[in-house]
Amino acid sequence: MIKAIMFDLDDTLLWDKKSVDKAFNNTCNLAFEKYRVDPVELEKNVRENARKLYASYNTYSFTQMIGINPFEGLWADFDDDGEGFRELKKIAPAYQKEVWISGLKDMGIDDLQFGYELAETFPEERKRNALVFDDTFHVLEQLKGKYQLLLLTNGSPSLQEAKLDLTPELRRYFDHIVISGAFGKGKPDPDIFMHALGLLSVDKEEVLMVGDNLKTDILGASRTGIASVWINRHWEGKEDVVPDYEISQLEELLSIIEKVDGRG
Questions:
Q1: What is the 8-class DSSP label of residue 218?
Q2: Cα–Cα 20 to 30 A to 168, which of 13, 14, 133, 208?
């Protein structure tokens, strides 16, 4: 019998990828308006510079453990407790500017001030484009009150809280919210899943984990003995991580729960 459901946040309930894409598109279009450069090419260059620079810092292993990607670093302030976050807070302002300056230089544009302007624009565009999947609230509404609901998300606490502040109606559905940066380890580490089970006061056999990421949500659930539901909206291959259930829309979760509970 299912008593609780754990949900990932980014690209499971929130459409983070599209939000980031829109922020890049709108920011890079400013460069097109000023210099007539190809905004798609600029975005490609900025993303590549972000990945390389992000991986070059001594904080990289920490961000990998917590689960904070380079593009979150472009709008996070890392105003969180702990040595790792204090280091990120020092690095972030220069990082956020440098990737845009370098991206412009890759396009033959040496304009420091404009690079600063783009670096300041991206976070505002990301906040302006806080998107939720069409079926998110309908599904949560069906589950609220019938099951305990726990949000299990990787990331900086201040940034994940900011995402929830941008879509405040999400919070009311969850009995617990667990953020990896506050716990100290991220998915797929079994410890954070065990911590979530403790908050719910349920056995692992009484929970489903729902997420879009095979290597964090699904692998972590598997390592902990929790049944997993992979939401595969883009028809990606399973690689070497196999979920217990696979759906292409969140709405399909409702029939999965009925099946697991023996009602389907």
A1: I
A2: 208
Query: pTM of the full predicted structure?
Result: 0.94
Residue appearing with tokens 């069906």: 142
Q: Are strands 207-211 and 227-231 parallel, antiparallel or unpaired?
A: parallel
Provide long-range contacts, Cβ within 8 A and 24+ apart, for 64-71: 65/185, 65/186, 65/189, 66/154, 66/155, 66/156, 66/180, 66/181, 66/185, 66/186, 67/154, 67/155, 67/180, 67/186, 67/187, 67/216, 68/154, 68/155, 68/156, 68/159, 68/181, 71/20, 71/47
Strand partners of residue 14: 10, 132
Closest CA to 75 of 35, 45, 119, 107: 119
- What does each of the 264 residues of the chain score in pLDDT, given as a tens digit? 899 999 999 999 999 999 999 999 999 999 999 999 999 999 999 999 999 999 999 999 999 999 999 999 999 999 999 999 999 999 999 999 999 999 999 999 999 999 999 999 999 999 999 999 999 999 999 999 999 999 999 999 999 999 999 999 999 999 999 999 999 999 999 999 999 999 999 999 999 999 999 999 999 999 999 999 999 998 777 678 999 999 999 999 999 999 888 765
Residues whose CB falls within 8 Å of the CB of residue 78, separated by 6 or more in sequence, listed in order? 85, 88, 89, 92, 156, 158, 159
